[in-house]
Amino acid sequence: MTRAPALLATAALLAGCAHTTPKQAPAQGVGSASYRTIEGAGLAHYQLAMGQIAMGATPEAHDPPAYPEAMLATCPAQVDLPARVIVSEQGTVSEVRMDPPPAQRPFAEAVRRAVRGWRYTPLAITRWAADADGDSHPVDSETKPFSLDYVFTFRCEHGRASVSSAAAKPSP
Q1: Global confidence as pTM
Q2: What residue numbers bound the domain in which 85 lies?
Q3: How many CB atoms lie within 10 A of CB 141?
Q4: Could you tell me the CATH number of the domain that includes residue 99?
Q5: How far is CA 116 from the centre of its chain?
Q6: Known SUPFAM superfamilies for this protein (predicted)?
Q7: Which of 33, 102, 106, 138 could form a disulfide with 64 if both were Cys (CB 3.0 to 4.6 A apart)?
Q8: 133 domain residue, yes or no
Q9: What is the pLDDT of residues 57-86, one digit of tens each?
Q10: What is the pLDDT of residues 138-149, one digit of tens each?
């Protein structure tokens, strides 16, 4: 009967080592974003006269929108959200135009929050002329407002979210 106490001692030691794994909370989705420009339908473009060049209208600061946290729990199917970004003469965003359906409004607000902080090199239109020696020099220059069309794509897969977007060529 010396085996019984040894078995009981072994069982007690094993019981002391046993543990249960705590239940883990469901994984919370993670959001990320990117964007792309698209050719905007109906966008007007500045008509340059002979001797004029346009420079600028290039992005300087473009933090992508964050995936709306309130939408992570439902993890909706892909959302493609077009937006027109109006840029002032100073290169700051003055307006973001969108017409989202009600279900996409949280995504539209995320886009507005991010895009309002975007900065561009101002669009400058410069008129050049040649002097009597044939050397070119700038005569005058002015900055102009412009707009770009973007498509923001929000994705959620397996509880993980991502956002991408696109923009079009600048226009007035």
Answers
A1: 0.71
A2: 28-46+57-119+145-167
A3: 13
A4: 3.30.2420
A5: 11
A6: TolA/TonB C-terminal domain
A7: 33
A8: no
A9: 999 988 889 899 888 888 787 888 999 999
A10: 889 999 999 999
Q: What is the pLDDT of residue 62?
A: 87
| Residue that is written with structure tokens 């020099």 in the block | 137
Can you spell out the DSSP letters for the chain? --HHHHHHHHHHHHHHH---PPPPPPPPP-----EEEE--TT---PPPPTTEEEE---EEE-PPPPPPHHHHTT-PSPEEEEEEEEE-TTSBEEEEE----GGGHHHHHHHHHHHTT-EE--EEEEEEEE-TTS-EEEEEEEEE-EEEEEEEEEEEETTEEEEEEEE---B-
Q: What's the structural domain count of the chain?
A: 1
Residues linked to residue 156 through DSSP beta bridges, in sequence order? 161
Name the percent of the chain lying above pLDDT 70. Answer: 68
Query: Which structure tokens are listed for 28?
Result: 């919370």
For residue 172, pLDDT over 80 is answered with no
Predicted local confidence at residue 69, as pLDDT: 87
